[in-house]
Write a structure and sequence with these properties.
elongated, 5 helices, single chain, mainly alpha
Length: 110
């Protein structure tokens, strides 16, 4: 199955979301399937960074040094804000959700 606009609209993408993806394809090339896959990968990277930051913060909590806990917490919060806002969070989530459902057996055209 190829990725179509109708399938994306049916799975929760808005017309504005599709226009953003099309503008990106026009600017940088590629296909709709490649763009969806790339956005899904970005979302997975954000998840890995989030869980990594949470693991570091939990480890720091066990240090019992209040200053270290606060400074690390603020640093990790700033890191997460930067990671989230350098990519479109809602669009990448929708792409990940679509990719997760349609990824079996080369379901997406790449």
């Amino acid at each position: 199955m190829k990725v179509t606009e109708a399938a994306l609209l049916k799975s929760g993408f808005s017309h504005a979301d599709l226009q953003k993806i099309k503008n990106n394809i026009d600017s940088y090339g590629g296909s709709l399937g490649e763009s969806i896959h790339d956005l899904a990968n970005r979302f997975r990277i954000v998840l890995w960074v989030f869980f990594g930051c949470m693991a570091i913060f939990i480890w720091v909590i066990f240090s019992n040094n209040q200053d270290y806990i606060v400074s690390t917490g603020i640093g990790l919060l700033i890191t997460m804000l930067i990671v989230i806002f350098i990519q479109p969070p809602v669009l990448s989530y929708k792409s990940w959700r679509y990719w997760k459902i349609h990824r079996t057996n080369g379901d997406l055209d790449q």
